[in-house]
Amino acid sequence: MNKILQEDIKQWVARFELADELAGSTFLITGATGLIGSCLIHALLNMNKGVHIIAPVRNRVKAERLFEQSANLIDWIECDLTTYNYSKVSKVDYIVHCAAPTSSKYFIVNPVETIDIIYHGTATLLDYARTHAPKGFVYLSSLEVYGSELPSTIIEEDVQGYWNPLLVRSSYPIAKRCAENLCAAYAAEYNVPVCIARLTQTTGAGIARDDNRIIAQFARLAANGDDIVLHTTGESARPYCYTMDCISAILYILLRGKSGEAYNVANEDTYISARMMAEYLRDHVNSSIHVRIELSDGSEYAPVSKLHLSVEKLKALGWQPQYGLKEIFERLIAYLS
User: Fold this and answer.
1) pTM of the model as a whole
2) Kind of pairing, strands 94-97 and 26-30?
3) CB-based contact 246:201 (threshold 8 Å)
4) How far apart are CA 203 and CA 281, in angstroms?
5) What angle, rounded to 10 degrees, do the helices at 243-256 and 3-15 form?
6) Sheet holding 201-203, edge to edge
7) CB-CB neighbours of 251 under 10 Å
């Protein structure tokens, strides 16, 4: 495991307050090879509370390589996540569904597959939960469900904006909206204890070295002394969240959240536009770089949106973020260097 990620996990374990409530429990976690799923598994195992992990993955060899010495502590299931018969799995206490496509390019090139993975993967797990009665279930959604043309400047969980259903890239946010509604339906009709975590862009030690989301791209460019080139006007703005804050939020929602409800997951204090982020890195990290705008046709980018998420609902569960923008970039650049 990378040194920065090891430090993050160690610090997280030292301050996570709900660890005893999870002692001896069994987790079913999808998306184990992704950033959030992998960090969640590392965190749970390092609590040393006897947590048992079951992880369905598409490629077991890749997954075991990622977890190195910890791989033998995890029960791997190599399968198609959308069609696997989860009734073969022994009873689990908690389900955290992290698996989903995350690349804008993938949404555009494979919109049908994007919808299929998001909707059917979620439906399969919810149906398992309906018949096997776990204590809790968290579905990881996205701030992209909010869309654009929002009627409010501060975005609480009951706010919804517009997505054009005829745009191919809308395959991702609309599928996420549909999966959220499915969660609410299973909670209402079948009493499945499922909550929704609406994640802002989350980053930190453990991201793929070629992660193409802007916060990772910009941090990498600044660390290497390369100019930051924006291919949009950089107006879109959102808050961010560090991986370990996100892991804590997921577990607070799992243990304290209300079934059928959604919770924004972000650090409100990190709200910043893409252009302002580039300028922040120039001013605070590497003054030798320049920020330039070279507009492209924009087909692979989401429409301009300003998503100032409120996290008061999450904070009411007892959660507090630990990493501000300064700390996020310090940890991210240290990891990428």
Assistant:
1) 0.94
2) parallel
3) no
4) 16
5) 30
6) 201-203, 237-242, 267-273
7) 25
- What are the pLDDT digits (tens) for 235-292? 889 999 999 999 999 999 999 999 999 999 999 999 999 999 999 999 999 989 999 9
**DSSP secondary structure string for all residues of 163-221:** --TTSGGGHHHHHHHHHHHHHHHHHHHH---EEEEEE-EEE-TT--TT--SHHHHHHHH
- Strand 194-199 vs strand 228-230: parallel, antiparallel, or unpaired? unpaired
Please answer whether residues 31 and 100 qualify as being in contact, where contact means their C-beta atoms are separated by less than 8 angstroms: yes
pLDDT at 275: 94
DSSP 132: H
Query: Is 3-208+241-268+306-322 in CATH node 3.40.50.720?
Result: yes
Expressed in angstroms, the distance from the first to the final Cα of the chain is: 15
Eight-class DSSP state of 88: G
Q: Distance (Å, rounded) from C-alpha 223 to C-alpha 332? A: 10
- In contact, 123 and 185? CB cutoff 8 Å: no
Three-state SS at 286? coil
Question: 240 with 270: CB under 8 angstroms?
Answer: yes
The residue behind tokens 């969980």 is 157
The residues pairing with 201 across neighbouring beta strands, listed in sequence order, are 240
Q: And the tokens for 285? A: 């990290």
Residues of the chain with pLDDT > 70, as a percent, come to 98
In angstroms, the CA 90 to CA 269 distance is 42
- Cα angle value 169/173/220 (rounded, 5°): 75
